[in-house]
Amino acid sequence: MKHMLTTEGLDRGVITSLLDDADEFVEVLGRPIPKVPALRGRTVATLFFEASTRTRMSFEKAAKALSADTVSFSPGTSALKKGESLKDTALTIQAMGVDLMIVRHAATGAAWRLAEWVDVPVVNGGDGAHQHPTQALLDCLTLRQHFGSLDGLKIGIVGDIRHSRVARSDIFAMTTLGADVTLVAPSTLLPHTTEGWPVATTGEFDDVLTELDVVYLLRVQAERGGASVFPSVAEYRSRFGMTAERLARLKPHAAVLHPGPMIRGVEIDHEVADDPRTLVLDQVANGVAVRMAVLFQLLGGERDV
Amino acid sequence: MTPDDVSRALRRVAHEIIERNRGAEDVLLMGIHTRGVPMAQRLAAAIGTIEGTEVPVGSLDIGLYRDDLGSRPTPSLDTTAVPIPFDDRTVVLVDDVLYTGRTIRAALDAMADLGRAARVQLAVLVDRGHRQLPIRADYVGKNLPTSHDERVMVHLTEIDGDDGVWLETPTQDAMRMGDE
User: Fold this and answer.
1) Would you write out chain B's pLDDT as a tens digit for each of its 180 residues?
2) Could you tell me the residue range of the domain that residue B117 belongs to?
3) Is B109 within 8 Å of chain A by CB?
4) Is residue B156 part of a domain?
5) Which string of DSSP letters, residue by residue, matches A50-116?
6) Among B104, B123, B116, B108, CA closest to B41
7) Which among A42, A76, A282, B78 has most CB atoms closer than 10 A?
8) B74–A33: do the CB atoms touch at under 8 Å?
9) What is the pLDDT of residues A154-209, one digit of tens each?
10) Would you say residue B166 lies in a domain?
11) Are residues A264 and A241 in contact, defined by beta-carbon separation less than 8 angstroms?
12) Is B139 inside any structural domain?
């Protein structure tokens, strides 16, 4: 594995071995001294051209727990403001001597372009509405911890699929690990086509609710135009929101996931967000372990000198 | 070493651990992956038979502490498990072969991140010499003089299906130690 760009086409063995390593990193993070020297002397750069709280912090925490140094780039304070291109920015950062780049960008495919330009491994931290592979890996880790395996799990991904890189990443990772995925959304929030995706789709949440082992909620992405397709928040909530009333109808062992940030009162009710069946905080904790596994896999081996 | 040699050596090491520590109440055995883990379990069983003391056994993966991470493929990781806090205990690290000492250096660093042992000792089945670091074993099943180009192969039933120690030289087929 040279880069981590997408979950599409990632085979089961690769995903499983990353999750196995992540399990070991969960143990490391629970130690009195939650830090190992594995990547001492390595430098990891985060290039986030889009807002992020948890993903960037999670990657930085992961790098530091492996003893790597981190440098970060934010467009707001950078020479990008002066008109420097993505390519020049990347080459400049590479010339400083970094060993791996994590990139988030609003443009689909940005991480792939970066991977062509630079000589170091690239991790996709989210490209537009396209892919966010480490999110999918942490979701799979959370589900594997909770259920033991994803084989045969019935997962409903609910909400703004069209604008969601999380959905696009989860669909491939989860089905590769043996889960059945159903997309639950109004047609206006589904992609123009789901051809080639190993999923079922429905516009009626209540039709599938009681069959699901996992409800995966997505945020309606106002910044990508997701809010304009619905007449009102109340209507969205009544048809696709995870309300307390719907929670009561779920299977007793079912779990609720959300990639964050959660908008309480829209896609998820307060009572649901705080319910023990909601694994949001496990997802966040697992995010660090999964990113350690990815960084270790990409940087833990032979160095090209 | 034949299967009998291996079990005799482990029994003697178990006796020595008890003798040196005046019993085994305060001992924690930490097996280093891969073969150190079943070896530690066997030592614990032997100590239990001799002393009637149940000795806790943990496992240690040193992959993240290796000093050669940059010059080999990424290692796969095994489980590190510490069954009890060990700040007031004697930790006995257990490994199959002691060679350069680099694995034990990594294990010492890993243990330091997991707690502060009262003391740390080292038990190995085979000491083949050629140390590159100032490290020695407290308990040795067999001292086996070797040259650098030879390979020592340890088999334990739990992993390999049989017990034994073989010496492989570049010019000869593997020879089991003790099978003259």
Assistant:
1) 999 999 999 999 999 999 999 999 999 999 999 999 999 999 999 999 999 999 999 999 999 999 999 899 999 899 999 999 999 999 999 999 999 999 999 999 999 999 999 999 999 999 999 999 999 999 999 999 999 999 999 999 999 999 999 999 887 777 777 765
2) 3-146
3) yes
4) no
5) S--SHHHHHHHHHHHHTT-EEEEE-GGGSGGGGT--HHHHHHHHHHTT-SEEEEEESSTTHHHHHHH
6) B123
7) A42
8) no
9) 999 999 999 999 999 999 999 999 999 999 999 989 999 999 999 999 999 999 99
10) no
11) no
12) yes
Contact A301 B61 (CB under 8 A): no
Residue A37 to residue B70, Cβ atoms within 8 A = no
Q: Is the pTM of this model over 0.95?
A: no
**The complex's ipTM?**
0.87
Q: Compare CB distances from A301 to B73, B77, B79 and report the shortest one's residue.
A: B73
Locate A47 and state its tokens: 């290039």
In a domain, B38, yes or no: yes
Q: Confidence class of residue A305 from pLDDT cuts 50, 70 and 90?
A: very low
Q: Which helix (H) or strand (E) is A155 found in, with range? A: strand A154-158
Q: Which of A21, A290, A304 to mutate to test the interface with B (most CBs of B within 10 A)?
A: A21
Cβ-defined contact of B78 to A31 (cutoff 8 Å): no
Which chain A residue's Cα is nearest to B70?
A: A302
B102 lies within 8 A of chain A by CB: no
In sequence order, what are the residues at sequence separation of 6 or more whose Cβ sits closer than 8 angstroms to the Cβ of residue A8? Answer: A131, A168, A172
Q: Which residue is listed with tokens 């073989």?
A: B166
**Where exactly does CATH 3.40.50.1370 map onto chain A?**
12-131+284-299, 133-283
How many pairs of residues across A and B have Cβ atoms under 8 Å apart?
Answer: 54
Of A24, A27, A36, the CB nearest to B65: A36
What is the structure's pLDDT at A121? 97
Tokens at A225, concatenated: 């135009």
DSSP track, B91-105? EEEEEEEESSSHHHH
Q: Which fold has domain A12-131+284-299?
A: Rossmann fold (3.40.50)
Best CATH choice for the domain A133-283 from the list 3.40.50.1370, 3.30.360.10, 3.30.930.10, 3.40.50.10490:
3.40.50.1370
B33 interface with A at CB cutoff 8 Å: no
